[in-house]
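re: the backbone from monday

yeah here it is again, tokenized this time
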């Protein structure tokens, strides 16, 4: 397992919260207008230079809709020139044109990720609250595929779609995507008004993902479902393996250097850091407790030495069954969900069925 005490695997910069969608689950509660206090272009350049001090983490530009920033391509190009592995998550709006997709490839973006939460236009657009967003997502993914730009689909799992994931998975493969990132809803922002799946339903979805991963073209990973790693270990052990290699899908395999094994143990503040549109430094976008601001504080120093980040990386500080669990270093439970539902980011994962004392 990698040591994330010195450098994160993923750095996410919310370049803006402005977005023309009104998704019912939105973490950011985005609106159509940019915040005048957003980091400027020059401040963005300085942030990216600081990120490079970590080495070569994956640098993700997210929002809102990053395309609402007129300097987006300057920022992306600067990130690539610094040697950062750069990806971007645009929203499927009229701004996501073939020209914009070609621009991503031109400046050297490694991958774009597009959110698709329904199995057809009606289910997706109802969730995203804007007619036509599904069709725009399809056109964007098809255009990226045509020009050879790697793609990823992000799907937020909630009650509206958890019984239809097979159809979304078929779409992921049909579109030739390299990764399917399955987000498990955390009740923050507008997502607070939505019902999460319960612990039993989490396990059902885990079972589907595991079986699907055996023949999926795409790598399948999760966000805010750290206990899927525990589930994978248990399934592999039950099937006669040692449970150590849990990468899966076309690019996954079972070696130690698979994409998913690289993410082993990642959690809020542990292999992961989030910078808000105004420069606030958070362990995660779903765990909005600031540990500083890049305008005044070093991102590197905050990540390595900030009290909150150090506490989150100390698995012995976990409470309840997470603190007793043999998988606590691999999994650790969603610190964001624990905070959202209990007010304590060290509390046990509220949506996990596993009972450590029952483990033989």
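seq for it, each position gets an aa:
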């Amino acid at each position: 397992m990698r040591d994330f005490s010195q450098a994160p695997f993923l750095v996410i910069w919310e370049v803006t919260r402005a977005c023309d969608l009104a998704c019912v689950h939105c973490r950011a509660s985005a609106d159509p207008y940019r915040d005048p206090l957003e980091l400027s272009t020059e401040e963005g350049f300085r942030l990216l230079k600081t990120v490079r001090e970590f080495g070569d983490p994956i640098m993700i530009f997210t929002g809102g809709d990053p395309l609402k920033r007129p300097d987006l391509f300057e920022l992306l190009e600067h990130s690539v020139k610094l040697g950062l592995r750069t990806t971007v998550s645009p929203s499927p709006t009229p701004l996501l044109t073939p020209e914009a997709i070609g621009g991503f490839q031109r400046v050297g973006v490694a991958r774009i990720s597009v959110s698709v939460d329904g199995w057809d236009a009606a289910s997706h657009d109802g969730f995203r609250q804007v007619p036509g967003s599904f069709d725009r997502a399809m056109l964007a993914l098809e255009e990226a595929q045509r020009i050879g730009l790697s793609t990823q689909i992000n799907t937020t799992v909630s009650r509206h779609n958890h019984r239809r994931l097979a159809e979304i998975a078929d779409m992921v493969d049909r579109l030739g995507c390299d990764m399917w990132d399955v987000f498990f809803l955390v009740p923050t922002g507008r997502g607070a008004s939505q019902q999460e799946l319960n612990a039993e339903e989490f396990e059902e979805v885990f079972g589907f993902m595991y079986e699907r991963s055996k023949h999926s073209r795409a790598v399948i990973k999760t966000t805010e479902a750290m206990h899927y790693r525990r589930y994978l270990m248990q399934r592999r052990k039950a099937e006669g393996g040692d449970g150590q290699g849990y990468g899966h899908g076309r690019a996954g395999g079972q070696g130690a250097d698979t994409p998913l094994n690289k993410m082993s143990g990642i959690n809020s503040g542990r292999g992961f850091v989030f910078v808000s549109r105004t420069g606030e430094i958070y362990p995660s976008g779903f765990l909005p407790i600031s540990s500083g601001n890049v305008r005044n504080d070093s991102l590197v120093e905050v990540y390595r030495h900030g009290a909150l980040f150090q506490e989150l990386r100390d698995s012995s500080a976990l409470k309840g069954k997470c603190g007793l669990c043999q998988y606590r270093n691999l999994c650790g439970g969603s610190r964001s969900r624990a905070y959202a539902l209990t007010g304590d980011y060290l509390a046990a994962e509220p949506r996990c069925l596993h009972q450590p004392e029952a483990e033989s």
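Strands lie at 10-14, 58-62, 85-88, 111-115, 150-157, 179-184, 219-223, 272-275, 281-282. Residues 245-257 have pLDDT under 50 and may be disordered.
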